[in-house]
Recover the amino acids of this structure.
């Protein structure tokens, strides 16, 4: 048997994981349209990746109809979406899997064609993503990002409420917990970072103020779920979607220290070397390691993701840098990834062309390893 640390149990809040190979949150854009509710195909996909006592983090799901920036992603704000997610959750629970839902607001990483009434996307400030990056419109054209509308101070409580409501909906759908998407240049990171947040109210300026929205949302979600069933995802030193903090250490040290007393299920990093892996094959060199930098500061369970092989994940855990490792791209093409790693079986390569949108092709048709399928 390979990788004794990776395949040892881990307590996450009230759940005892039987192993530490986690499905990373992965946007796949295959929800039903126009309801944006998960459909049976999505339940099949997640059930294929479920293992007894294994943790899956379901894809980023917009908390409101203003929180979208791409087509076909499943929401978590309507009754139809709750019902669709319930089928996903039931299929995972039937295999004794554990499943959290990632709660998402894209902020300025959107286009007015996705917004109700064609309104401008919102953000911390009216700062557009640079023209090196392109927005995709609802009909699939690539265009420059628009300058978003800065949220009024009085509107911010509504954003917290949208996350609270989505957290309640996730509970109603039967999930085991929620993860707050504070990474990859989306709304919560737009508030955290100084280049996208030029506010002068209590949500901008100092590091404490920039961190306030993330902390208020985390607090709201823990009130719904209990802290042990809430995780937070961050991407310090990341550059996805035009993000990037000039001096990340003071900001992220504050955020991690402020999250410490809450007793969360886990803190989840995206390793900077894989920043932007959703859009292109990247492997940045000469970048720091998030787990190495923040392990000494974070007091709870630390999960990380980004370019891990089984060997690298085992080493990260053995060396004490992380407690669990989330796998993205290779879990897409290997539905039986935990068992393959454990048995030392070769991995099926992934096809980036089928990451986003479409149907079963490149989604539920990656085979199990022969010997595992027969087992
Ligand atoms: C197709 C695709 C979709 C992704 N969607 C999300 C997402 O919804 N939420 C998120 O936090 N990260 C998302 N990511 C980032 C992954 O969770 C992960 O951090 C990244 O792929 C690096 O891990 P890997 O090297 O194991 O793939 C996505 C990545 C890919 C490739």
């Amino acid at each position: 048997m390979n990788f004794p640390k990776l395949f040892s149990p881990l307590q996450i809040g009230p759940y005892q994981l039987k192993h530490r190979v986690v499905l990373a949150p992965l946007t796949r854009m295959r929800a039903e349209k126009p309801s944006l509710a998960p459909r049976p195909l999505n339940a099949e996909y997640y059930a294929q990746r479920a293992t007894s006592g294994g943790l899956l983090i379901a894809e980023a799901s917009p908390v409101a109809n203003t929180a979208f920036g791409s087509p076909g992603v499943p929401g978590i704000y309507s009754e139809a979406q709750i019902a669709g997610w319930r089928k996903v959750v039931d299929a995972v629970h039937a295999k004794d899997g554990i499943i959290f839902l990632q709660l998402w607001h894209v902020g300025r990483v959107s286009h007015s064609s996705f917004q109700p009434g064609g309104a401008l996307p919102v953000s911390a400030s009216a700062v557009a993503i640079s023209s090196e990056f392109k927005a995709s419109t609802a009909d699939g054209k690539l265009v420059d990002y628009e300058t978003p509308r800065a949220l009024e101070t009085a509107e911010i409580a509504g954003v917290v409420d949208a996350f609270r409501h989505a957290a309640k909906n996730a509970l109603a759908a039967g999930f085991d917990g929620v993860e707050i998407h504070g990474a990859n240049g989306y709304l919560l990171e737009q508030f955290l970072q100084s280049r996208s947040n030029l506010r002068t109210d209590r949500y901008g300026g100092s590091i404490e103020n920039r961190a306030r929205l993330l902390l208020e949302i985390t607090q709201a979600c823990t009130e719904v779920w209990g802290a042990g069933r809430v995780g937070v995802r961050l991407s310090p030193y990341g550059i996805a979607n035009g993000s990037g903090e000039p001096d990340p250490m003071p900001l992220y040290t504050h955020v991690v220290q402020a999250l410490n007393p809450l007793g969360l299920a886990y803190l989840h990093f995206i390793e900077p070397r894989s920043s932007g892996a959703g859009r292109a094959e990247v492997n940045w060199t000469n970048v720091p390691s998030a787990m190495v930098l923040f392990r000494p500061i974070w007091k709870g369970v630390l999960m990380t993701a980004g370019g891990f092989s089984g060997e690298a994940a085992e080493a990260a855990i053995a060396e004490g840098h992380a407690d669990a490792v989330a796998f993205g791209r290779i879990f897409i093409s290997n539905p039986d990834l935990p068992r393959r790693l454990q048995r030392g079986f070769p991995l099926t390569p992934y096809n980036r062309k089928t990451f986003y949108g479409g149907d079963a092709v490149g989604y539920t048709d990656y085979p199990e390893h022969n010997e595992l399928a027969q087992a």
Q: What stands out?
A: DSSP finds twelve helices and 14 strands in the chain.
